[in-house]
Amino acid sequence: MAVVEVKNLYKSYADVLAVADMTFSVEKGEILGLIGPNGAGKSSAIKMILDFMKPDAGTVKIFNQPMNELFKDRIGYLPEERGLYKRLTAIELILYLASLKGMDRKVAEERANVLLDRVGMLENKHKKNKEMSKGMGQLIQFIVTVVHEPDLIILDEPFTGLDPIRTESVQAIISDLRGQGKAVILSTHQMNKVEELCDDVLMINKGHTVLYGDIPASRAKFRKHSVRIYSNSQWSDLKGVVETKSHNGFVELMLEPEVSSQQILDQLREQGVDINRFEVTTPSLNEIFLELAGGTS
Amino acid sequence: MNKVILLFKHEFIQAIKKPGYIILTLAIPVLALITIGVVQLFSSLFEPAADELTRVGYVDQVGIFNEYTDLGFIQFIPFVTEDDAIASLLENKINEFILIPPDYYTTVSVQRYTMSREFETPVGKRYAIDNFLTRNILKDKVPPEVIENVLSPLNISVIRLAENGLMADSQNNIGNIIIPGIYAFLLSMALLFGNNSLISGLGEEKESRLIEVLTSSVSVSQMLIGKVLALGAAGLLQVLLWLVSGPLILDLASLTFGGLLANIQIPPNFIFFGVIYFVLGYLLFAVLAVMIGGIVSTAADGHNLSMFYIMAGYIPLWTFGAFISFPEHPIWIMLTIFPITAPTQTMLRLGVSDIPTWQLTASLGVLILSIAIGQFLSVKIFRTFMLMYGKRPRVREIFKALRSS
Fold first, then answer.
1. What pLDDT is stored for residue A296 in this prediction?
2. pLDDT bracket for residue A297 (50, 70, 90)
3. Domain boundaries in chain B?
4. How far apart are CA B61 and CA B64, in angstroms?
5. Taking the model in full, what pTM does it have?
6. Whole-angstrom Cα distance, residue B298 to residue B296?
7. CB contact under 8 A, A72 and B210
């Protein structure tokens, strides 16, 4: 059973089409990466899933039913732009918002302490929110989002403003939540994070879905007939190479259709080239996006 | 329901911990105590002490003012000539003197000579001089009790009759308006505070997007009900604290202001209507604040927009002078029924006259109806526009959204 099922969703504001014919689903224990540039329609899609606004057309089902108030306790939502009650301490804020999710105070405090410890914030739990840095505040909001162990977690740009160590901590918690069978929608424009964390990807541009599916399969689908060579040595012309592109740290060779990557590797060995790394080019999600969005991005 | 209680508890605690709330709550009794203290201080500084004798010289050019020279705290000392009196004044043997000219009977005028800087003769001295002169003029002409009668101020007591010819329940008395007037003022302050707190809270939550986190946990109706009730309870607590401190302040004030406060009467049904109009007035301003909070992006924008109905709510206080002079004018009936001015205007009218039952019924009915319609519209407006940031919707857009929802 899909935790979230979205079918043929449309939304426009005045003359601007925000979401067009969006269809996807997220299962238990699955992370869906919702990616696209700013203004692509990611936040609009999330707000329709949460029933903050109604779609012009299409359906959204949560736990196999239309969204209703009873489901709110089973959902955790981290909005893109974030703020805190400035006069509350971190733990007061977490416990207050956890209570609105129906959590027992004692259980909430135990879980909050575990999460605060995992992100290195335990010693700051009695600090007032107004005294916290932006990154610290963001971690508190992330904890607020997941402390009640919701079945559906929607994270809108969760890594913005976090340092690499805290990004790693948050990533680890998200991975653990997947392991516990939680469904996660991760909206971001940081495509590398989607590659690292997600099972599926939904790529949108100007409201339109440009790619949807399993990440390895999607990348394989866009694999080009080329190889990448990381080497400090020089080599002479290779047979079967149509075009050579130099990048920072590697050279990409575009191959003739009948030439295999093994033949290229053999030629380099024959020339005695010292190779640090040799790989068949598989495009990143960023490259796929650029290719798909093309001039329209 | 449980979530409404949680929201109520959180919002109530946050409201009463706000510095603005604490300052306003304490400011009213503290300001009253300071006023009483200042009046007492000035009285003690500028009034002669009870045991301090004032010596007033007089030059009698009529020739009849020779008795009643000792009035206790003022002693009148005769001088033959004006020069003698001036010499005594310069030597500090007397504090001042008066010259009673030969034509006093026709002019009823005396000259007062003093070395003090003052704009006019202090009331106590004017009374003492008048007393001295009158007693001497009337001596041997009328019995002493007639003299006492002449010197006593006229006391007119007014009995207001009801339409059945019997004494009305509420009698005309300037003291009657004091409690309703103070209550109307405090009510306006409490409504203003509640309105501003609600707009500030909603504005901050919209600016920080906390509104999205809250509405992902509770419904918009639950959130708004929790907030409105919490701020209403905070306002009620504030008014109750003012009312509790009232008797103490009145006791202290009667020592300072004397007789006026002895006439204070609490109009019949005043407490009952005071509570009813506080609750209804608060709810009306709250639903208006929610509407404003829904369509604005920032708290500051909300405060500017709410000024229109806040100012309208103060009309009964601005027109208080005209109301006292012409309490039966039909304009006050209109303000009693118009929902925004109804709470304050009704409280003021209760102190001055009986309000016909039909007017009270109409006033309460319109107020309750306005709150019901306002509540319905405010939830819809808030739900529609709570996610609109950076731009205030036009009136046309609001109507369109209301129609489509």
1. 46
2. very low
3. 2-33+173-404, 54-151
4. 9
5. 0.73
6. 6
7. no
Contacts of A263 (CB under 8 A, 6+ apart): A239, A240
Torsion of CA A126, A131, A134, A135, to 10 degrees: -40
If DSSP states are collapsed to H, E and C, what string results for chain A?
CEEEEEEEEEEEECCEEEEEEEEEEEECCCEEEEECCCCCCHHHHHHHHCCCCCCCEEEEEECCEECCHHHHHHEEEECCCCCCCCCCEHHHHHHHHHHHCCCCHHHHHHHHHHHHHHCCCHHHCCCEHHHCCHHHHHHHHHHHHHCCCCCEEEEECCCCCCCHHHHHHHHHHHHHHHHCCCEEEEEECCHHHHHHHCCEEEEEECCEEEEEEEHHHHHHHCCCCEEEEEECCCCCCCCCEEEEEECCCCEEEEECCCCCHHHHHHHHHHCCCCEEEEEECCCCHHHHHHHHHHHHC
Which chain B residues are Cβ-neighbours of A44 within 8 angstroms?
none
State yes or no: pLDDT of A224 exceeds 70.
yes
Residues 67-106 of A with CB under 8 A from B: 69, 72-73, 75, 77, 79-85, 87, 96-97, 99-102
B357-385 helix and B270-295 helix, angle to the nearest 10 degrees:
20
> Residue A154: beta bridge partners?
A77, A185
CA A297 – CA B341 distance, rounded (Å):
56
Q: Spell out, as residue ranges, where chain B has pLDDT lower than 50.
A: none
Domain covering B54-151: architecture: 3-Layer(aba) Sandwich (3.40)
As to burial, measured by CB atoms within 10 angstroms (0-12 exposed, 13-18 middle, 19+ buried), residue B62 is middle
Q: What phi and psi, each to the nearest 5 degrees, are found at residue B402?
A: -65, -40
pLDDT for the residue numbered B81: 92
More confident residue, B366 or A53: B366
CA atoms within 13 Å, Cβ hemisphere of A215: 20
Tell me the C-alpha distance between B128 and A22, whole Å: 96
Task: Give the amino acid at B281.
Answer: G
For B387, which of A53, A96, A99 is closest by C-beta distance?
A: A53
Note whether B217 contacts A141, CB cutoff 8 Å. Answer: no
Could you give the dihedral angle defined by the CA atoms of residues B68, B70, B75 and B80, in that order, rounded to the nearest 10 degrees? 40
C-alpha span between B257 and B65 (Å, rounded): 35
Amino acid at B41: L
Chain A residues near residue B3 by CB distance under 8 angstroms: 100
Amino acid identity for residue B360 in this structure: L
On whether the CB atoms of residues B368 and B393 are closer than 8 A, the answer is no
Q: How far apart are CA A100 and CA A252, in angstroms?
A: 55
Structure tokens at B211: 């509104």
- Single out the residue of A23, A31, A30 nearest to residue A6, CA to CA: A23
In this structure, chain B runs to a length of 405
Contacts of A30 (CB under 8 A, 6+ apart): A178, A183, A184, A199, A200
A32 close to B (CB below 8 A): no
Question: For residue B128, what are the contacts with CB-CB under 8 A and spacing of at least 6?
Answer: B56, B71, B73, B74
Q: Are A189 and A37 in contact (CB under 8 A)?
A: yes
Lookup result for tokens 């012309």: A237
Residue A77 confidence class, pLDDT cut points 50, 70, 90 = very high
What angle do helix axes B174-207 and B19-46 make, rounded to 10 degrees? 150
Distance (Å) from the C-alpha of residue A82 to the closest C-alpha of chain B? 6
